[in-house]
Design a protein that fits this description.
The chain is mostly helical. It has one domain. It contains four helices and no strands. α1 crosses α4. The protein is globular, with a radius of gyration of 13 Å. The relative contact order is 0.18.
């Protein structure tokens, strides 16, 4: 599958899952989108690398760390 299609599908999968979680007042579960994804066997659950082609061209930057609070 073309890399751009994989990236777009991955982002859409995450957005749709988080939308459903928010609609049900559930806490965001970062694992749920991958559990139900038809591509999870090919991507090995590496969502950040899969989204990278689209994220690099966006104005949104995702960091998987939180700042230390004093």
């Amino acid at each position: 599958m073309e890399r751009g299609v994989v990236s777009a599908t991955c982002i859409a999968q995450h957005i749709e899952t988080f939308r459903k979680q928010a609609a049900g007042d559930a806490k965001a579960d970062f694992g749920e989108p991958c559990q139900n994804c038809p591509m999870n066997k090919e991507c090995n659950f590496d969502w950040l690398s899969n989204m990278a082609p689209l994220l690099k061209d966006s104005m949104v930057k995702i960091r998987m760390v939180l700042p230390v609070q004093c």
